[in-house]
Amino acid sequence: MQEAAFFQLSTSTTLLLLFGFYGATFLLSLLIGKKKENVDGYMVSNNAVGFGLSAASMIATWIWAASFYASATSGYKYGLSGPIHYGLWGALMIMFIYPFGKRFRKLAPKAHTLAEVIQARHGTSSQLIMAGSNLIGSCISLMVNFTAAGALVSILSPLNFIQGVLIAGLGVLSYTLWSGFRASVMTDFAQLIAMILAAVVIIPIIFINAGGTDMLMTNMSNLTDQQSDFFSTKALLEQGAPYFVAVLAYAIGNQTIAQRLFAVREDLIKSTFLTATIGYGAVVIGLGMLGMLALFVGLVPANGNMNNIIPQMASTYLPPFAIALFFILVVGSLSSTADSDLSALSSIMMTDIYGKNLARGKPDPKRMLWWGRATMIVATMLGVVFASLRLDILVMLVFVGALWGAIVFPVIISFYWDRVTNKAFTTSVICAVALFTVSRFQLIPIEGAVAVFFEICASVGAGVVVGLMAFAFFNRKIAITVGVAVIVGSLPFTVGFLRDYAVLLSSLTAYGVSAMVCTAMSWRSNERFDFDLLAVRVTSFHTDENEAAPVKPAFRPAADPVPSNA
């Protein structure tokens, strides 16, 4: 039951705000609709989106429901350092992806999905692993955003959770279905402006009405020692480090990010992603402060559900007009990511399932569009159904990101090292997912020699994470040196200790195992891949003369020279 003290918008006001918001976005999408849709435009806007739209779309997509609810949960659980551990690491991961993104675009400038490029590099099995992980991740993301919509509506209006989920699902589908990615990018720009304006008004009002600095000083005693410590070890091990590892995987494994990477003009990748880094960090850290304020004032989440923290704070400390602004703020944030998820799912089904497999490299553009739109409808239905489970958003976010950690090293290294084979890619991912599952869900007792084994794998994983970040901005020698130093330096601390932190242990294990298996198998390979083949195999769909080449990867004899762009 909701507490009667919470202010609620009337049913008519709530419906007016929802239908007004989705009606406006739908009308905006009509302005860019085309009678004869181009499949490349539907998926990546023909790889030619400009800086303003790209940066805004990137920020709006990365600021999703979890940016509100999970960031607030982090602030509520971990106090002063909670919002930093969520917002800062998420922002850094946007910056981290652009050097690798430039490499992907250089090798395959006409790509639609990362799985499509993986197929051209390795073959069908590796492509389906990549596409499958993206399908699962985007479906979960869609579910999370619809869950946020239900929580918002049920707290701030007389409508119930399911009604909120249904309205959000149908609203997002209505304006995304016809124009796909182009509609997502165009509406992202408008949604971002609305979100920023609302945040600038809302956050200061809540802070002042909650008591301002005097309230902070008075209620500091309500915090535990760890919550009042800006350098909290508990926050780092339970939130900061697992989330840092998770969002690294999101940056590589999430098709919504890859789609924008392939859509923006190639010369604008760096400026777009650096701008998005700053914009995301500023907004999300501010929003996370609302959870920290809830901790200070002693707020108890309604029904014990952490997803209710932000709606409760808004209901308690905002005047009616600001609650309406807050309502639009959250609806805009979750919608901007939900439409990106629908676009990502449709692109994967159009390109990787139909275009490269069912159609055997000779797709019919009209049928591709049918696949894409049908996927959006089915995904919306599944998102609405699974949203009724009301799972904890922060837990789901870290779980999916950690699972994606199994593919990060094999994906990145495949575009730099010509020895990596399809067998090495596939085997490393399967092994990493299997051991991640064992350690994450404690399928066997993690103690004794078994615990030591997983802790050693996790130490390697820590070295891989830091090494990859160094590799993004420096050369290979520096990256290897930094990675090895982290492995050696962390072993004395992880062995005997990390077994008590299952989330972090399993996340790092996924990175470590995939890196070790992939490297060991590739090192023994005598094959050499010609990276110039990627641009030949990955082409636009809308021109008959540019049909993709056969999907089997071609290799050179080991004695052939490595191309200069490898």
From TrEMBL:
Molecular function GO terms recorded: symporter activity
Q: In its keyword annotation, does this UniProt entry include Cell membrane?
A: yes
Superkingdom per UniProt: Bacteria
Q: For this chain's UniProt record, which GO biological process terms are given?
A: sodium ion transport
Provide this UniProt record's keywords sorted from A to Z: Cell membrane, Ion transport, Membrane, Sodium, Sodium transport, Symport, Transmembrane, Transmembrane helix, Transport
**TM spans (from-to):** 6-32, 44-64, 84-101, 135-155, 161-178, 190-210, 273-297, 317-338, 368-387, 393-417, 424-443, 449-471, 478-495, 501-523
Q: What CDD domains does this protein's entry cite? A: SLC5sbd_DUR3
| Topology versus the membrane | Multi-pass membrane protein
Which reaction equations make up its catalytic activity?
Answer: L-proline(in) + Na(+)(in) = L-proline(out) + Na(+)(out)
Cellular location of this protein?
Answer: Cell membrane
Q: Name one GO cellular component term.
A: plasma membrane
In this record, what's one Pfam family? SSF
Coiled-coil stretches, from where to where? Answer: none
**Which family does the record claim for this protein?**
Belongs to the sodium:solute symporter (SSF) (TC 2.A.21) family.
Full protein name = Sodium:proline symporter
The record lists the organism as Pollutimonas subterranea
Q: What is the lineage of its organism?
A: Bacteria, Pseudomonadati, Pseudomonadota, Betaproteobacteria, Burkholderiales
